[in-house]
Amino acid sequence: MNLKRIAVTAACTSALLSSLLAPAAVAQGQNEANPGVAVDTDTPSAREVAEFWTPERTREALAHPEPLLKADPKRGLDRKPSSGRLAKPVSVDAARPTSDSPAARTATLQTAGTEAAVAQEIAVAQEVPYSTSIPNVVVGKLLYQKPNGDTGHCTASVIVSDTKNTVWTAGHCVHTGSGGAAGWFSNIRFIPGYKDGQQPWGEWVEDRKYAPSSYTEGGDQLESDLAAVVLQPLAGYGNLQDNIGGLGYRFGGETDYADAFTVGYPGEGYNRTDMTGERMMYCRGNTEDLWWWVPTDDRVKMDCDMGKGASGGPMFIGAFNYNPQIIGANSHYQEDATTGKRVNDDLISSLHDLNAANVINAVNDSA
Q1: Looking at the whole model, is its pTM more than 0.85?
Q2: Which residues on neighbouring strands pair with residue 159, listed in sequence order?
Q3: Is the pLDDT of residue 14 over 50?
Q4: 175 three-class SS
Q5: By C-alpha distance, which of 80, 84, 79 is closest to 35?
C-alpha cells in the first residue's frame, strides 16, 4: 500500500481536462490553452545557428557539460502540492522511423544491450553499444548558448509529437531557471547518436522551446525541470522523427517503475574519473520516490552514477518491449551541505505529471 499516494489528493476536474485538450496557437510568452507553459518563439534561423557554431565554439561547448542541479531538501517541505494532478497517466507509444526514410534504409536495430547481459541493476554507468544505430540514436547531444554568452551541452531525446521534430530534455538545459523571457538559451542544435565527434544523422536546429513557467520564473525542481525543443526539418531529410523514430512517454503521478533505463553523455560521475562526455552511457534499475515520507515531493530517483553532461537525458521504461516511454529527465543530485560534494549515486528527475503533459500538449497544439 502506498501511504503517500493516499495522503496526496490527485484530483483533476473536467475543466482541467478540457484545458489540456483545447487547441491553441503558439504565442511568445505563455500558451493560453496549456496554462503554466512558457514558450520562446524568438529563435534564430537555421543559417544563423550554422554560422554561430564555428569549430572553436563547438569545441568550447563540448568541453563544458551542463552540471546537474543540486537537490534542495527544503523545497519539498515548505510548499503545497502542485495546482493539479492528472486523473490518470497519459501514455503514448514510441515511434519507429518510416520505412522510406534515409535512416531507416540503413538502420541497424539494436537495444541498449542484451537482456541477459543486464538482468541485474546497473548503477555504474556503462557505454551504450551501437549508440549510432536505431533506436539508440534517438538520444543525442544538445548544444546551446546561454544568455551570458557561455556555451555548453546537455543530453536530449526525440519524443513522439505531432510536430515530428521535438526533443525532450531538462528545463535547465534550455533556460536559466529565472528571469522569464530573458532566461532562454539560444542557438540550440541537436546531434542524435553523437559519438567521439561523429554526427551519424546530422545536426538539427531549434525552431521554438517550451518549459513550465514554474521553472522559467522560479526554477522549481519538484515538477518543473523539464522542457521540449521543437526543431526545424532538415533539408533533404524532412522530419527527425520520420527518420530515426522517437521515444513515447508516460506522464502522471507515478514514481515507482521496474526495469527502467536512463541514458546520457556524462562528462563526470560519482566516484568516476573515466567519463569524457564523448560517448552515450546508460544505467538500468528501478525508480522510486525520492523522499516517500514527504507528501508534497514526488521526485523520481534511480541509482546511477552519471553526472554533468547527462542532464536532460531520458529516464524511460519499455526498452525490451519495443515500446520505450519517457517517464522523467535527468535533473539533479544530492550533496553534503558541509563539503558540497555529491553524497550518493542517486540520479533524480522532476516528477513528470501535469506540467509535463501541459508542455507536450502545447507542442502538439502548435503542429
Answers
A1: yes
A2: 247
A3: no
A4: strand
A5: 84
